[in-house]
Structure formats: structure tokens, C-alpha cells
Amino acid sequence: MTIEQALSGFALPHALIGTVALATFWTAAMAKKGSPLHKAVGRIYLLAMIGVVLTAVPLTLAFTLQGQWVGAAFLGYLIVLVSHACRMAWLAVRYKRDFARYTGIGFRISAAVLAATGTAVVVLGVVHNAWLLIIFGLLGPLGGLDARALIRKGPSGPKWWLKEHYGAMIGNGVATHIAFMQIGLMRLFPELGSTVIQHLAWFGPLAVGIGAGFWLDRRYIRPRATPPRPAT
């Protein structure tokens, strides 16, 4: 057995753990926010995502040894992106009353690494004329700019941690669904591999995630003002 074959053996555990992540994501999303079910399933989801990241590392090495440099670079970038989002989702709740600790040195290093790797993927996309790499690579530097703005401006209100938490969870959800649709479904059903289906697999979850972010902001961060009652 070659090293590449040994590393590729992590594909099945990666897929199984990813299935758990997919199921628990929707369970937590549908559960009442802040309920015991939401908290318990959310922990399982984050632990599953850690498993996804750990099993993705040898897969990235396998891509590298096989000479698939573009695939290895993009998968490595996804590892950084998901790791950063998992860290934000977990610590936003843990340090919701300690903004300074949340945005400490670990947060700054993680955001800087995300911005650097995303920029590298954008350059890779420009070199290979791959718009998918360019668009998703931009999430890295944009995330770095958001982190810088958060540190500079400080908490926007008492629910700053909630926005950070569900924003990170939406990012993880987008990554989970892209991986499932682009990698899992395409391997199970190769006949789906048309250009239109592939673009839907990439941009569909991203569009839904952006819409969910606006909806949650409207509901929890910027609720509609209640019209004043007429004077009696």
C-alpha cells in the first residue's frame, strides 16, 4: 500500500463524520434557539466539524502527493476556513460577556491566517482562470476585514456574541453543504456532473447562507421598530 492510498483511506471516515455534521446542523437549526436540544446538538455538530477537519488533513496530503496542487490548495483553505468558523462559534458563546477575551491574540492570528490563505486561493484562481476559486477565496480576506472592523469598533451591542455565533454557524453550514453536494453527490451520481448542477452545488448554499444571515440579523440584531400606539 502506497502512502497516497493510506491517506486516501480517510475518505470514508471523513464522509461519515460529514454526514453526522449535516444531520446535526439542521437539527440545531430547527430547534428553539437557546433550548437544551439546540445547545446539545450544537455541541455535537461542532465536534463533528472538528472530526471533519482532522480527517481532511490527510486527504489534503494525498492530493498533494498525487500532484493535484489546485485541489490540495483549495481543500487546505477550506480547512482553515472551517477551523476559524468553528472557533468563532464556540468562543462567541463561551466569552459572550468578555469581548476582549474573544477578540484576543488567538482570534487575531486565526483571522490573519484566514485572510492570507484566502488571498492565496484568489491568486491561484486568477492564474488558472477559475472563478470558483476567486469567489470563494475572497471569503478569506473579507473575513479578515470583518475581524479587523470588529476589533476596531468594539461590540455593536449586547447581542454582539449572538451575531458572531450564528454568522460562524452559517459559514460552517455553507461549507458542509458545498462539500456534500459537490463531492458526495457528484461521486454517488456522476450523471449530475453538468456545469449547471456544479454551479448550483457551489453557489446555492452560499446564496441561502447569505439570505439566512440577513434574516437572522433582522430578527435578532435589528428587529423592526414597533409602531407607537395611538393616544387614547
Automatic annotation (TrEMBL):
Keyword terms, alphabetized: Membrane, Transmembrane, Transmembrane helix
Transmembrane segments: 12-31, 43-63, 69-93, 105-124, 130-151, 172-190, 196-216
Domain of life of the native organism: Bacteria
Name of protein: DUF2306 domain-containing protein
Source lineage: Bacteria, Pseudomonadati, Pseudomonadota, Gammaproteobacteria, Chromatiales
